[in-house]
Design goal:
The protein has 536 residues and is α/β, with parallel strands linked by helices. The chain has 11 helices and 35 strands. It folds into 3 domains: 185 residues; 60 residues, no CATH class; 131 residues, no CATH class.
């Protein structure tokens, strides 16, 4: 504790501080922060004296109810307020503290370091009944720790700068706050228009915020410690496991260079940044695209607030997750959360498109079994993975008409014939008279249009398994045909062998494909109608 030998031994600025604390009259304060790191001794205040007064002084030197207020002072040494119980406000504004500030395990009414410069702050387990202000030009050239803190008012860091490029800049692990401002100052009354800047990671991991967190007009840069690859990049902004009762406002952020971690966070309203060019693992150079840096697995929120909800913007955010969460370690939960919120906000079409995109990404990531990839692809093309059942009608119509065109062309070129003729051609040599006016049973004499062949009906008979238009029974592709014709003495034609008919074989393959498609479509439509397909 600071020991007084004689008040007259105090420096000029220290005597002024003592007089102000005892009288509560702060009219002669300096408005600006000192510009020199080594002012004259008379203009300096020892941190031990300041700590003595803030803690309550002694019987002769006790501050008034107005508390301790300093502006524009240069403070020498580390300011130790640890484990103190302070019942009045503390205002150290536009000061230069040439050392660290320790408020760990302290119980404070309010603390303002607005516009001040310090070498770091240890506020672990601190309790502040009002507002803790580190704003408007505040500069810390070392880590600021507020882990386990309980702040009844806001933590106001708007327009502050937290510089610790080789480590974390701001650590707020498992704290309880009313509101948190990590934003820039962009008010007409502020001539400086200062952004919030953090060089080093900002962590609110596991913290509980009773109101909102604002990050607009902020710059967040991860630690500059070297890494081997992008997956090892350090966090620029970490809300993992945080609980935010109102809004997380990220829209309008200037830069997030490093990982933006929202895993396991619970938020009421999300106002995110859809300009993904501002969100990246490293600064884009020479027009390089931004590197995906988002970690969203486990993030739960109720709705979007004042941010675009269309498919394009929502997709851009989701595909900006780190690479492994879109490939080998694919995380479906962020997609499902967005789908749920869009539905509840009355955006069903955007929700469907996100759901379809999710299924596509699952297949690309190799999360669909090897033997299920083709059915999965067909399921997507036919029904939009169950989200667009009406699309099946268009696909079925296209298959029906396309196959009908193939069958009509085949019939006109003799590749489709009456089924009875085709069967007899396949089992025995034929005895046919090519000059006969009528086709003898067992002989094939080209297209028999008089049999009433209908390409549309033939295709429909194959496409709809539970419909019987008789075309499939009466007509068949000519897959083999007799060869080696010789004429006997009585004028009959005899065939000694048979050969494959390429055109007929192609028609048969088309028929098989149409039948397989028909059963696949019927099964999928039935499963969707019965609610057996889990879409999300």
């Amino acid at each position: 504790m600071f020991q007084f030998s004689d008040d007259a031994a105090l420096r000029r600025r220290e005597r002024l501080l003592l007089s102000q604390c005892l009288s509560g009259d702060y009219r002669d304060e300096l408005p600006e922060r000192p510009s020199s790191a080594a002012p004259a001794d008379d203009d300096c205040i020892r941190a031990e004296l300041l700590s003595f007064l803030i803690r309550g002084g002694d019987e002769r030197r006790t501050p008034t109810h107005k508390g301790v207020r300093l502006r524009g002072a240069y403070i020498v040494g580390d300011l130790d307020l640890s484990a103190s119980d302070v019942k009045w406000p503390i205002e150290l504004e536009n000061c230069w503290i040439a050392g660290k500030v320790d408020i760990s395990d302290a119980n404070l009414l309010t603390l303002s370091l607005r516009g001040s410069r310090i070498a770091g702050l240890d506020g672990e387990l601190v309790k502040v009944r009002g507002v803790l202000t580190l704003a408007n030009g505040f500069l810390s050239e070392g880590v600021v720790v507020l882990s386990g803190a309980e702040i009844g008012g806001a933590l106001d860091c708007s327009g502050g700068a937290f510089i610790n490029p080789k480590g974390n800049a701001l650590e707020i692990f498992r704290a309880k706050l009313a509101d948190c401002f990590l934003s820039g100052v962009n008010e007409p009354t502020d001539p400086h228009k200062r952004p919030f800047t953090a060089r080093g990671g900002v962590f609110l991991t596991g913290s509980k915020i009773g109101g909102s967190v604002y990050c607009n007009n902020g710059n967040f840069y991860a630690s500059e410690e070297p890494v081997e690859n992008d997956d090892d990049r350090r966090d620029a902004l970490n809300f993992a496991g945080a609980e935010i009762a109102d809004t997380l406002a990220l829209r309008g952020v200037y830069w997030v260079v490093g990982k933006l971690d929202l895993r396991g966070a619970t938020i009421d309203k999300l106002q995110d940044e859809t300009d993904i060019g501002r969100l990246t693992l490293r600064h884009p150079r020479d027009g390089e695209p931004p590197t995906p840096n988002l970690m969203l697995d486990g993030l739960v929120f109720r709705r979007f607030s004042d941010t675009p909800t269309d498919f394009k913007n929502r997709r851009n955010i989701l595909v900006h997750q780190i690479e492994r969460h879109l490939s080998a370690d694919f995380r479906p939960q962020p997609w499902e959360q967005v789908i749920k919120v869009l539905r509840e906000m009355g955006r069903p079409e955007d929700a469907r498109r996100i759901a379809i995109e999710k299924q596509t990404r699952l297949r690309r990531a190799g999360k669909i079994g090897k033997f299920l990839r083709l059915p999965h692809l067909l399921f997507g093309g036919l029904l939009g993975y169950g989200y667009r059942p009406g699309g099946a009608l268009v696909v079925i119509l296209g298959v029906w008409l396309s196959c009908a065109g193939v069958y009509q062309h085949a019939f006109e070129n003799g590749a489709i014939a009456p089924a009875k003729t085709v069967l007899q051609n396949a089992v025995a040599a034929l005895d046919c008279d090519p000059h006969a006016t009528e086709t003898k049973p067992g002989c094939y004499a080209g297209p028999a249009k008089s049999y009433g062949f209908s390409a549309l009906s033939f295709s429909a008979d194959l496409l709809f398994p539970f419909v019987d238009l008789q075309q499939r029974k009466e007509w068949a592709p000519v897959v083999i045909e007799p060869t080696g014709a010789t004429a006997s003495a009585d004028g009959h034609i005899h065939y000694s062998s048979f050969q494959w008919n390429d055109a007929g074989l192609r028609v048969r393959r088309v028929m098989w494909a149409e039948i397989a498609f028909a059963w696949f479509a019927t099964g999928v439509l039935g499963a969707v109608a019965a609610g057996l397909v889990k879409k999300d």
